[in-house]
Amino acid sequence: MPDDVNQVYLYLRAIHADATIPTLRKLIRDNSLGILTTAIPSKIFPLLQSSHIPFLLDIEDETNENELGTLRGHIARQNPQSKAIIESLQSQPSAIDDVLEQEVLILFNSPVHHYVTPKFYTETKPESGKVVPTWNYAAVQAYGRARIYHKSNSDETTAFLSAQISDLSQYAESSIMGYTGDNNRPGAWSVSDAPDRYIHLLQKNIIGIEITVDRLEGKFKMSQEMGKGDREGVVQGFQSLKSNVGSHMAEVVRERGNLKDSKSG
Prior knowledge:
The protein has 7 helices and 8 strands. It has helices at residues 21-30, 80-90, 124-127, 155-176, 196-203, 228-240, 244-264, and strands spanning 33-39, 48-54, 56-58, 70-76, 104-109, 114-116, 134-149, 206-221. Helix 6 (228-240) packs antiparallel against helix 7.
């Protein structure tokens, strides 16, 4: 029996698996609200649980196109998923460094996706009518082992959570909000702007999660499976919607189609 018989994989047609690791890392950073999913056996809590959590992706060497990185996040201690995680760790006397035995999954979705009507296919539809609707989207699934920082009186937990909250706030304020203080932009909010005691109390109510990514799988399903004529019809169809989403979809469909053509040519 294969060692990975119990592992989960993203259904990935070869034609949709045309993204490099740096491209997948960028999608994660551009869409940092991930869905943390665990499958932890418990007599009290559900086997499958998911929570939406903002993550930071740490890469040691950005020039290394094969590095998968480490994901950092935190979750409310009162969340049933947190309770199941802690229960699992406490029931494993052999647990090393509070690392969960079970693999975890984090799903990141591009916020821009869209239904594709068969009317967009200007080549195949008129010739044979053998077309059906579909949905275009992009997503990344990250898998790995999670180290949990849950011991509230531990200096290691305090240090991890302090860095996590500060780094996440700095990233969101500067990269998402654009609060850099430059060119008449507002300055960023900082954790130090809040009272120390208040932050300390909040840290008692969260646990830290650090995931070493073992597998990173991504899917850009953007009409690459269609012929060039139909792809151009999809681009024109999205542009005809005259919306921000339509314009973005048209751009990505053209980009992924050009990438396909460059590889096959």
